Amino acid sequence: MATISPVVVPYSGGIPGGIKNGMEIEVQGTVPHHAHNGFSINLCQGPNVEPTTVLHFNVRLNQNCIVLNHMQNNSWGGEVRHDGHQFHKGKPFDLRILIKPQMYKLKVNGRHIVDFAHRLPKETAQFIVVQGEVSVNYIRFQSGGGGGGYPPAGAAGGCGGFVPPPAGSAFIPPSLPYPTGAVPAPQPAYGPQPIYNPPVPFVQGIPGGLSPGRMIHISGVPFPTASRITINLQSGPYDGCDVAFHCDIRFRTDDGSFNTIVRNHCQGGAWGLEDRSAPYFPFVPNNNFDILLLTEAHGFKVAVNNQHLLEFRHRLPMQVANTLRVTGDVRLTQIRFQ
Asked: First and final CA of the chain: distance in angstroms?
């Protein structure tokens, strides 16, 4: 579960982890006493309603109705209207949007009010945009089944032998099958709450440092014209620090790299041998990604969008890395340490 608070309207922010079947989006707010026209809550492809919005939920106080619609290539579709008596000036409300395979199910103040069939692929929605005359206390994203959008421990598939825990839960390493057979002792949850929409470059110490079983979760959206995104686990906050793990995601760079992920380490200012092998390139400009970095005794495992991608054996002691640094052509939506 991820919660965004406070929310300043107009608001535009990424949807952590992207839209998935079973996800519920909760918006809790209040209609101001002075409101006249109303407000809208939108699930959009980009940070603005234009050019593509997969769900437009528009409360029109002056018409006492709710209008649902979509927008594609800056053109609105056909409106679906519903009675709007659930929203009153000066009164709080609780809106919940449940994502189903064929439709959105909308509930206000605990009562189901309307369904809206998907007109565009729901997965294209990467942002939630709130506009108009409304005060929002928080926006909460709850994945289906209370599992944070991840398969249960021990389920088939996942990230090449490790399965991410639900957001906010304790991370219990013994539930993970380790290829080496070494199973670390149980560890508590680490660090602060998830960090939402941090600025880039992002530089922060790793709470508790690295040890086998530690996990770092990075979510973001590459810019439409992204060239590269760089993730370093390094010995300090500055350029020139030793780097235990350098992961350079190259969409298209001046050296001729195209859809390549370069891994390396750096010690005393000297870079080691590059590793460019990878079974596929999972990153797409303007599309949300979820990266999971798992520290093991022998190296780092990397998964993207719940699929195992690659491994990088330790070249420096893992304890050298006390800082996470993310730079490049990306809008970060969430960082979480576990």
From this structure: 15
Asked whether 138 and 11 are in contact (CB, 8 A), the reply is no
Q: What is the DSSP string of 251-268?
A: EE-TTS-EEEEEEEEEET
CA-only gyration radius of the chain, Å:
22
Biggest distance spanned by C-alpha atoms of the chain: 68
Report the candidate in 238, 216, 212, 239 with the shortest Cα–Cα distance to residue 314: 212
Convert the pLDDT of each residue in 50-101 to its tens digit. Answer: 999 999 999 999 999 999 999 998 999 999 999 988 999 999 999 999 999 9
Q: Is 194 exposed, middle or buried (0-12, 13-18, 19+ CB in 10 A)?
A: buried
Listed residue (45, 38, 47) closest to 11, CA to CA: 47
In total, the chain counts a number of residues equal to 338
- Decide if 250 contacts 260 (C-beta within 8 A): yes
Quick one: residue 75, left, alpha or beta (phi over 0 = left, psi -120 to 50 = alpha)? beta
Tokens 């969008």, located at residue? 305
Q: What is the pLDDT of residues 242-279, one digit of tens each?
A: 999 999 999 988 888 889 999 999 999 999 999 999 88
Verdict on whether the full-model pTM lies above 0.85: no
Q: Which long-range contacts (CB under 8 A, 24 or more apart) does 117-122 make?
A: 118/54, 119/54, 119/70, 119/72, 119/77, 120/52, 120/54, 120/70, 120/72, 121/54, 122/19, 122/43, 122/54
* Amino acid, single-letter form, for residue 330: V
Q: How many CA atoms lie within 13 A of 259 on its CB side?
A: 8
